[in-house]
Amino acid sequence: MNKKVKVLVFPCGAENATEIYQALRYSIHVEIFGASSMDDHGRYTFENYVGGLPNIKEPGFQAEFEALITRLKIDMVFATHDSVMEYLSEKTQIMDFFLVNGAPETTAVARKKSATYQMFAARDWSPKVFPNPDAVDVWPAVIKPDCGQGGQGVQVVHDLAEASMAFAKMASPVLMEYLPGDEVTVDCFTDRKGRLVWIGARTRERVRAGISMRSSLLPLDARIEGIAQDINATLKFRGPWFFQLKQDRGGCWKLLEFSCRVAGTMVAQRAKGVNLPLMAVHDYLERDVKALANRWVEMVDRRIVTKAEMEFRYETVFVDLDETLVIDGFAVPTVLAFIYQSIAARKKLVLITRHAKNVAETLSRARISLNLFDEIIHITDGSSKALYVVPDAIFIDNHFPERYEVMEKCNVPVFDVDAIEFFLR
């Protein structure tokens, strides 16, 4: 088998970084790394995590980032922030790595709304932009920062006085027509030959902090496809990218922005069977790619996921059977996932139980293999489980009195079933 492609996600703590990780984590072609300047959620997501890098605006960033690329022998980088994308696009020749969708001209245009609207000013799908508040012909209008993304810093202004005040307060403002209609995001993939391999439109529903928590996948209409093809023909892309459209007062689609990076809610395309980050890896390997979409998937819904950090080194996992590993005769998926994760981490697995029946038969009926466990302790004399728990261990049991006694006597972390999800990678 050929060597794996070493992929770095930077920065790695945001939603879109997590989506890249999830998209690539099981690929036999990829070894994935995450790096960040801030101490963020990335270190709970990436097994291979590097923190403490300087900010891209700090003098030492380039030297440290280049050293990281060399030390880890990184082949390709996914930049997850527009400013990082623009910065790295100018450095790829020096640092010798492939930046996904890192054409310098394209990233520069994408970073500024003014450059984007100027680039496409002749198109009928480009919004009307005003040089100053006095030029606005219909109110309300919209003011937004030139280098913002999504809805960050966007203000609806209703008259000349309000617009003038907002215009004066904002650094590098862009003043444009108000678009009251529906909004869609269009996820795209362009291969190394410049072919637009995938165009997938989706809604932005229940938006929180600029992130679509619910997204419905839409049939592709000719108008949206035409805009995608036009953008793709005008600028150089290679990999996943997206653009956002909103309808004007007459129901016509107008461009809000485009970006060269992966979007967090591109997960909607992956749920449909179209793994855009993985397609980028195959394209990097100079393989022709095409999309295989499941037409039955129509919507995704997302939520915040919580991870916990445990400051305790352990080598053994003790886990109870009844109402912990098995409930109502069926294996508990979260606990089973944690067991497999622990095996991969070379932990010792001990099943400790007061089960009234034959343990092997109960596990067999739940389709759980005895081979998962290094040891099975079947207590039949009423003795305390604390007698068996060793110092460098954690203890998982649904029964509070058992957990209480083990913590009191053994001074080790104890968890109910509901807490296990916090420690799954």
Automatic annotation (TrEMBL):
Keyword terms, alphabetized: ATP-binding, Nucleotide-binding
GO molecular function (one): ATP binding
Xref: Gene3D superfamilies: 3.40.50.20, ATP-grasp fold, B domain
PROSITE patterns: ATP_GRASP
InterPro entries (UniProt xref): ATP-grasp
Residue intervals of the ATP-grasp domain: 113-285
Pfam families: ATPgrasp_Ter (PF15632)
Protein's recorded name: ATP-grasp domain-containing protein
